[in-house]
Specification:
Blueprint: E1 3-7, H1 11-23, E2 27-31, H2 37-44, E3 48-52, H3 60-70, E4 76-80, H4 85-93, E5 98-101, H5 106-125, E6 134-136, E7 139-142, E8 147-150, E9 153-156, H6 159-170, E10 175-177, H7 178-185, H8 191-207, E11 214-219, E12 223-228
Parallel strand pairs: 1-2, 1-3, 3-4, 4-5
Antiparallel strand pairs: 6-7, 7-8, 8-9, 10-12, 11-12
Length: about 230
């Protein structure tokens, strides 16, 4: 059964959402106080989190960062009554994968949950080297440690850099759709995130510049091709 940690402090809304999710076969762990979320996360061990942003004692942004520390791959959906673009961006920057503005329909929430779980499952089931790292030409990439090694040199990667390089490494010598990358990493293909993607790709090219057999090609209007001329 799919376990969802649902964090909401509006009693009427939390009752409706919990019952609706359970009627669709989800197992729901519910918390209304921000300071209790981390302990419940550890106890309940969900596979996806749905977090309200405005909570007593600890807001959703801070909770997403706490959860990311415990599980960097945990899918997180924000529920927000805020409409400012800055608030939405802050949600993504704090580790959210998707967001829904209140008021929302249960149909929309279910679709968002299912889509995010599908993307996560694709990520989990994609072939990674049996020993948990990628050999990329002269580089060795350890996604779970957020590390890129080149000889004796070690570069620590950010969460976004790790996610993007993982996607490229999983699809070495195959085209990756730009929109798919945006949805998987940011949960949104907005113009702002698209420009962010360009910046991160430029960084990754710079990190891999010591090996001339590796190349990240931009396929205009399509996406990217991470090519190794060794294979």
């Amino acid at each position: 059964m799919t376990k969802i940690l649902y964090v909401e402090d509006e009693p009427f809304l939390e009752k409706i959402v919990k019952e609706s999710l359970e009627s669709r076969g989800f197992e729901v762990g519910m918390v209304s106080d921000g300071r209790e979320v981390v302990e419940e996360f550890k106890r309940f061990q969900p596979i996806i989190c749905v977090l309200d942003i405005m909570l007593p004692h600890r807001d959703g942004y801070a909770l997403a960062q706490d959860i990311r520390q415990l599980n960097p791959e945990m899918p997180i959906i924000f529920l927000t009554a805020k409409t400012q673009t800055e608030d939405v961006l802050k949600g993504f920057q704090s580790g959210g994968n998707d967001y829904i503005r209140k008021p929302f329909s249960m149909e929309e929430l279910i679709v968002r949950i299912q889509n995010l779980l599908q993307l996560t499952q694709q990520k989990v089931t994609t072939a990674v080297a049996p020993n948990g790292h990628f050999e990329l030409g002269e580089y060795t990439f350890y996604p779970h440690r957020y590390e890129l090694h080149h000889g004796t040199q070690l570069r620590k990667l950010s969460h976004r850099e790790t996610e993007l390089l993982s996607i490229l490494a999983e699809n070495l010598n195959f085209t990756v759709n730009r929109r798919d990358m945006l949805l998987r990493v940011w949960g949104d293909d907005s113009f702002f995130n698209s420009r962010n993607l360009d910046v991160y790709i430029t960084r990754l090219r710079d990190y891999l510049r010591e090996d001339s057999t590796l190349e990240i090609l931009t396929l205009k209007g399509v996406g990217y091709l991470f090519k190794s001329h060794r294979y």
